[in-house]
Protein 1
Amino acid sequence: MASSSSLGVMCMFVVVISILGSSTWAALSTDFYSKSCPKVFTTVESVVESAVSKEPRMGASLVRLFFHDCFVNGCDGSILLDDTSSFTGEKTAGPNNNSVRGFEVVDAIKALVEKVCPGVVSCADILAIAARDSVVKLGGPDWDVKLGRRDSKTASFSAANSGVIPPPTATLGQLINRFNARGLSAKDMVALSGAHTIGKARCALFRDRIYNETNIDGSFAKTTQSSCPRTSGSGDNNLAPLDVETQNSFDLKYFKNLLNKKGLLHSDQILFNGGSTDSLVKTYSSNVKTFYSDFVTAMIKMGDITPLTGSNGEIRKNCRRPN
């Protein structure tokens, strides 16, 4: 029979574990704010709707912010932090510098949410909701967003620069490996790449493809070259749509474009280039229901990447700086 002291120790152990379980590793849930901030969804949606109506590209930018946040140390809102005296943030890292955008829209959402329920909703969760609302606003699928993330108190320039975010020059193997490292499958990767059915890219990111690659439609290459000079440093920031057919509609045209060798980035066309993902591209190009379903599944999985929950992190008052 166990002694009273050992029973006491065991009880204390159980209590500690239960406290840790509830406060540190709390699971995300779709009804996290149902009591503490029931108007969070309509509040976020109103700002996203206004921003995307003014500039449809902003929808793609908000989705990309969520992706670049989650791939660097998890979905913790760290990408939103400005540099401070104690750390250099992620905004000027290679994959983000002069590239990620939409911070002002996040600021506007946060300001409005703070008026409705101050100190309750994290910036990390705002990114997750805004990404979903952007997809819906541009005609894509809807889904219930899992919430309960908390905000990081710091950001990491070096982590954002470490290669965890795949570059537009990535090979198929590199893409698969980078997504696998974040718990996402090759199918998730291809489905998430379908977000390139909206948005634009800078000339510097696709110049080599349109001038030097051979697995590209000739007329598409020539048309794109007209706004992207061959010389590096000339027109680097000129934009072209990632989906040449319907850049402001969340549809399956991106995948149809790949079948026709009209992927803008190397990392787009590599998904349909005689490799292991060809069959998925073909499926998505003709079955919007399957694409939408797989995209939603992948977005939810991406949103689950190592969030801060419970007592970890904080709820920032201003998304750009720690409290």
Protein 2
Amino acid sequence: MLKGLMKRGPRKVPRSDANEPVPSRASASSVTVNHASRSAPTSFSPSTSPIPSPSPPVQFEQLPLFRDVPATERPSLFLRKLRICSIILDFSDSLRSLREKESKRQTLSELVDFVQSGSCGRLPDQVQEELVRMVSVNIFRCLPPAAHENTGTVDLSADPEEEEPYLDPAWPHLQLVYELLLRYVVSPDTDTKVAKRYVDHSFVLRLLDLFDSEDPREREYLKTILHRIYGKFMVHRPFIRKAINNIFYRFIFETERHNGVGELLEILGSIINGFALPMKEEHKLFLIRALIPLHKPKSVGFYHQQLSYCITQFVEKDYKLADAVIRGLLKYWPVTNCQKEVMFISELEEVLEATQPAEFQRCMVPLFKQIARCLNSFHFQVAERALFLWNNDHIVSLIAQNRGVIFPIIFEALEKNIQTHWNQAVHGLTANVRKMFLDMDGELFEQCQRQYIEKQSKAKELEAQRELAWRRLEAVIAAKKDNMVLVN
């Protein structure tokens, strides 16, 4: 029996198993951002290892300082220190593994100083791979659930600005890991031809997923690092733009929840500023399909300043985009949110400052119909902000050149404010704008005034006729009631 088993030898691998293809790296052309950043990533690139769970208590090896070893032994010592820093510690319990945490913090700090000093020179390929792997193991993790994810409900009465941001207890270590990554990326000794094998598309995608972190300190580091990667790794630039585009799409049309939109827009503001002219069609489509629809979410107030800067950069780069931008703002103009409306008017003024007469003429009719509605708003801040547009010399000059079209649209709104608006400040500003129109073209002003008076008189006549028709109808019904015969 034993001899028979020995003769059989090891079991052969089935043909189907032997021929099974080895998982290959994700295609560089397909951009699929894992927006569910609060769940653990499921795909990894060959340059990084899977994210382990917190390690059990280990004995940290006592290693010498870099200055205490010869220069020839420093790369191997660097590698050993990186492997020590790859050990994950549990920060949920502040009293656990205190000595190990302090040892890891000191090792990370030493690595940062060593890379920053430049004394390491060009790191060997194996060290660079291990460095990126250590960074990946530490920073790519499950983000804690937000409040609405814990309860499953959304408190509409809560003000997000008043809520305390979540601060990661592991930040003293995470900060050093981010600082080491930043120093590695910006180092003049880092060769992008070698580094791009480790800081690859998969790494960049998971870096973008971390922008949804609630910790503002982490998002600030991520913003700086991603901006540096975009500037240094030219091969990643189209990929990064497309990945950010996908994040915005999901935020606008699906979740309306993301903590890092403002930081991503800050990066884009710098990127847009560097676009070459004539502008590529890809960049124009990004403006129309992603940036302008970002005005739609209710939370636009948290990132509006950065968004407005990006929009204005586009118009300043290519003035022909002004018409599309203004019409986009009108498309997403708020109806019931007055604070949002004030922000839109402020952004509109910045766009109009960069608008040329030809583009202004294409959109001035729908634009000033909306401005007229703002002038008559019962919310005094909206009406006041709209009237402040006449303090801008460039906008006044555009209005003066097209006063034959704009005066008739705006005149009725001004007269209504003079007669009925409750706020004295709005009343005074309206009188100033009205006088400006009178000084600009008295004849046109009188013509608009006559038309307004005629329109008001016709409206009164129609109201009187309507009232008379109702009285006649009531009289007919009363007469029928008197002649009605009741049948038991």
Protein 3
Amino acid sequence: MASFSALRKLETDMEQVCAVGESPEEKASCTTNRKEGEENPPGSSDVAENPSEVEENSKLSLISWNVDGLDGEEQPERARGLCSYLTLHSPDVVFLQELIPPYSRFMKKRLADNYTFIEGGKEGYFIGMMLKKSRITLLDSEIVDYPTTRMMRNLLVAQVLFKGQKLCLMTSHLESCKPNAAERMRQLRLVMKRMTEAPDDVTVLFGGDANLRDSEVARVGLPDCVCDVWEQLGKPENCRYTWDTTINTNREIQFKCQLRFDRLYLRRASKDGVPQLEPDSMTLIGLEKLKCGCFTSDHWGILCTFSAE
């Protein structure tokens, strides 16, 4: 975790970037495709129109991503890359972890016309949500504290409407590092309690950097009404590992590892006549290196779609 002096330096660097507008070249060339010599601009506007656009518009799209704002390495370029990915995929809901104030201001400058921003803090580093204004109606939001956290962690909750359907959206960054398993499991229990206590006409979606190991989830136990979205989709191998230091080179780690730190949990509405939100697809994003040589984050982002049945 970065020191506060390091955070101040990051803020200074990012403020300088925010004061300077992006050039047309930066907007058009944020990432390089894996195929050598081909440009892959995530924010390009000339994306081919989907032939099943009407069907896709009926689905809820969500991105969850730990953006690693605490890492100062090539931070301005990584922030631009993040904004370009969000512009390309145009998700209805975005869950973000490890935001810092200048990173948040940088994103708002570029995306606030289309998204409502909600944040779980204002200082140090924190979590946040983005809700597409044309698709999601925000009703209420709250910050739920974790009483015994030692890492400034909390739970951000938003009550929203999507096409008339009531949703409760939750994001969090659970306690980091293997030795903190006990605190992390306490936090997971609190999340599960909040999910199960939601009214039966509300669909609950939780997503974030949970830092969980499978053994910890087994010890806590998921309520019968809550499912792991990745498992619900058949455990697709191509999006199993969201923290993969065998591929992602943003961090210099001696022992390479592959872990599923970032997770999505769903509790369906159970009231008769209420549409059921069902997982439809999942993929990882942020797999391309930026021109600066870094990935957008040390985590991959999760892009998931849900259909109402």
Protein 4
Amino acid sequence: MGRGYLVEDAVERYLSDLCGQQAGPLTGLLIGQSSAQRDFVVMATRTPYKQESAVASGDFLVKEWVTEHARQVSRMLPGGLSVLGVFIITEIDNKDTLTTLRQLVFAVENMISSEHLWTPEADDVTECVTLHVNSKTRKTICRTFDVKDPKSMAKPADWKYQSGVCSSWSMVSCCLNVDMLVPLPNNRTSKENMDEGLKAWADQIKNGFCLFDGKKLPEDTEFTAGQKRNVRQKCSAQLLIKPGERRQTDVIQQCGGSLSVRGTIHSRAYVHSNKPKAKLAEKLLKRDVISTVSTRVQMLLEELLTSEEESKSHRDSQQIEQFCFPRRIFCPVKATGLVCVCDYQFSDEGLCEMTDRLKEMLDIDAVEEDLDTRQEMTAELRESNIKAEAKVENAEVLEPKRNNFTGVAIAAAAAVLAAAASMLYLNDV
């Protein structure tokens, strides 16, 4: 037998309900955490329909739509939670179904990993799961593929339901001050330029010094040592970032502008209770810090595409622009206990739009009272911030709006972002 999967019993109820509702093949994502010995699946979410007629047209099986959904869902997962694989619900049992699952799981992993700003490590699990549920018999077939091997063949895996899979997981959290400068060659905020600048900052985070409750733990120390059995542990962490030997701001290079991200962000990670090491807790927390900042930069640049096109005609040759980053809001997944997912609220959005998006992307029924809005403040745009960065008169302030299920790259000329208590500035030089 191959890898083992411990699955929250709420996932079984969810898949069973989908079997009773669906009128044709239906796909979705499996979400949880991997470990060396086994994986933990804590929730599942169906792929949303593109339109009302999707069932009849079969659009829900379009690979591009499934992978775009996976990209959006991945952004809504805090540290320690990730998309582990895909499922399909259909009464058809043949090789075509396995072929479809294989194509989807490889496409999903490629899409998600393309947004990562970190290099995979040797201990990262590369096997992803596929689950076929027969809508008539409710029989499940679980297989895995090594997504780093293009020639990987399906391997059988053990799929076991259990209650309280993540009830005793530990939660690690921290607040981090961000002060990042990204040069923009040729006055362009292309994805390539942004990724290069973000990766330099991400390397600093990766090499940072991590303290848990004020202590530096050896990498091989069991993170939950001394913890009472089946009791959730909450740990406060600190990330101490040491500057590199040569900071990016010390390098002389020709550029048409710069992008500055400043402010404070909240980060958290969930750690499984199967004798995890301190090294794992540190890795998951650092990856969440990197992910939440890069996600917000990408989201804002996507939203600025329309604003950029509309403002080209009256854009000055020298200017500084200031924008609000979306703030991070958390929502508990009730079936799992205290594990939360997250979303990002733009300044022009209400909480009802957060609950709508949680329903669309993660199929979570949440009300506004469920949302945790306390972790990050709403950013404020202040004219003094602009003047402090550069003495530019009549600075233009844009309010980007956000659409659901967007996935468009943007080339903005020089923009400035301000986060939930974070500021992002873009300077034309």
